[in-house]
Amino acid sequence: MENNSKFGSWVNAKIMPPVMKFVNTKAVKALQDGMIYSLPFIIVGSIFLILSNIPIPAVAQALNDSGWAAFFSQAYTATFGVLSLWAVVGMAYVYVRNEGYEPLPAGLTSLSAFLLIQLMQTDNPLKTAMANGTGNLSAKAVTANIDKLPHALQTLVNNPVTGVFNVTWLGGQGMVGAIIVGLLTGWAYSGMLKKGWKITLPEQVPSSVAKQFTAMIPAGVILGVAMLVYAGFKTFMNTDLLQYVYTLLEMPMQGLSDSLFGAIIIGFAVSFFWFFGVHGGLIVGTIAGVFLMPNTAANAALYHAGKLSLANGAHIVTNEFYNNFINLTGSGITIGLVIFTLFAAKSTQMKTLGKIELVPAIFNINEPFLFGLPLVMNPFLAIPFFLTPVVIALTTYLVIYFGIVPPLNGVAAPWTTPAIISGFFIGGWKMAIWQACTLVISILIYFPFAKKYDQILVKQEAEKMAEEAK
């Protein structure tokens, strides 16, 4: 106990202050709260994604024949499929709101800047069709043999379609670019207002009109800079900021987060922070979510196209991997502890808290255990609290990697969705069965440690009763 107390004091003195300082910065708060604005579109879009790809062949064929599958696909594309749009507006909005200014003009300025920095073009559909046709041509083969076509046809195939937004960069692949634009817009917009860079109209002008003039100078400066950024990338590199950032930052970081090492670190980190009383889900979810949400969006796009497989680039570790496995039944995956308290505990404290925690645990909430049992700073339950999410992160990664269960399909089941039900939504019946297996793993890991802790509590309760009887 003394060693644990010393270690806990060291962590609280040396580790937690810089971590909490980082988490409470204006940028991280805007990132965390701004991303939440995309949540309704993710969940509603997930419903349309399921409807457009119902895993029952007869039903799917009927929807295709009736045309409804195309309607559902349109709805998915306009909600979940443009995830970065909601994020870039939300982050600038929250940043400026937290600074005490009218936030909506900043959100709209951020959206305009995000669209402005993109190449408004997409590959010629003829080239795409040739590469994805029913023959044996691959994209590489098409590219290598274009010069054998007549010159006029070469020009047609090679020229992109311009004057359109490429939905690819409005979705998960544009997320890191959206974060950069959203946060920089929020910072610059509020900074200019602080310095008085605004047009002030007479009091007789209606406030709704005056507010728009207040926004005009900051918006003009930000959009002017965005235009110069676009011009620079287009002129000197023949690309845009989003594609450059995706290649330079997002792909490597998605690869790191989508590794076995990444899964284990994420699983460990949540319990580590919670053990010392800091909201591990909030910290890890904010940082890891930057790269896990694009992983989810990429899997959703593959699932929507009927190409969901690791061979086609599907990700193993996604935001649903985090929400519906690493945090299943609450941080530390404490369902095993709940089962022990309900059926095997002898101490009054554990039995009472077990009854209180049962219903919240079904919906993946376990604060009654974290602070009531407690799990926070409890050396007797530290090993299963750290070990269980690591084991489940490791095994879940491996069962997907070896093809025992399919990759997660990109459907975003809310984090409060009960276990097994969420598994079915995010990966079908095989994933639901595996999720049930993870509950059993939790029970097996927690039981011996919970039994020992229960014996300690029984002894303490007996000693207390003896003292009270004197």
What does this structure look like?
By secondary structure, this protein is mostly helical. It is built from 21 helices and two strands. The chain has helices at residues 2-23, 26-35, 39-52, 57-66, 68-77, 83-98, 104-116, 125-131, 139-145, 151-158, 175-194, 207-237, 241-257, 260-275, 280-304, 319-326, 335-343, 348-362, 367-372, 382-401, 421-469, and strands at residues 121-122, 161-162. It has a two-stranded antiparallel ribbon. Helix 7 (104-116) packs parallel to helix 12 (207-237).
Strand content: under 5%
Average pLDDT? 86
Radius of gyration: 26 Å
Counting DSSP E segments of at least 2 residues, the number of strands comes to 2
Q: What percent of residues adopt helix (DSSP H or I)? A: over 70%
User: Number of DSSP helices?
Assistant: 21
N-to-C series of helices and strands: HHHHHHHEHHHEHHHHHHHHHHH
Q: Span from first to last CA?
A: 29 Å
Largest sheet, in brief, is: 2 strands, antiparallel
Structural class: mainly alpha
User: Strands across the major sheet, in which order?
Assistant: 1-2
Low-confidence stretches: 133-137
Q: Provide the domain count.
A: 2
- Shape verdict: globular
Assembly annotation: single chain
